[in-house]
Design goal:
alpha+beta; about 140 residues; 6 helices
Length: about 140
């Protein structure tokens, strides 16, 4: 039962996200990266892949398209040439803010008829389930 509900929720949530972002011309994976960079600007690609749970090769192609579209730029930091750090451009910050608002709107819809206590409890259950899955 859990797996069916989670897959159904994931599918519906992604569909609704992209309905809200349809005019933004973002590909799958980019909203998640934009949201992450909004909170962790200046991250290295490996951190982005791990945090967003996206394969490193996929992150490479997503970042390439985002850079091409002017949403991010990659730079060295503190003369450390071993790593390129990913930063949002002004356009990227605008898009990330738009994505964050879309996520917040949908989260409000999803949790609409939950009490504050139920919301907190539900999030804690999901965190625990995620933790259990990560340990497998």
């Amino acid at each position: 039962m859990y797996h069916k509900l989670m897959m159904e929720n994931q599918s519906m949530f992604i569909k609704k996200v992209f309905e809200q972002l349809r005019d933004r011309h973002l590909s799958v994976g980019q909203p998640k990266i934009l949201e992450y960079l909004f909170e962790h600007d200046g991250s290295v690609q490996k951190e982005i892949a791990m945090a967003c749970r996206i394969e490193p090769a996929t992150v490479t192609s997503l970042l390439f398209r985002m850079e091409k579209n002017g949403m991010i730029e990659r730079k060295t930091r503190n003369d450390n040439r071993r790593y390129l750090y990913v930063f949002l451009t002004d356009k990227g910050k605008y898009e990330a803010d738009y994505v964050k608002k879309a996520f917040d709107t949908l989260e409000g819809i999803v949790l609409n008829d939950f009490t504050d206590k139920e919301k907190k409890q539900f999030i804690e259950y999901l965190k625990r389930a995620n933790k259990n899955l990560k340990e497998v």
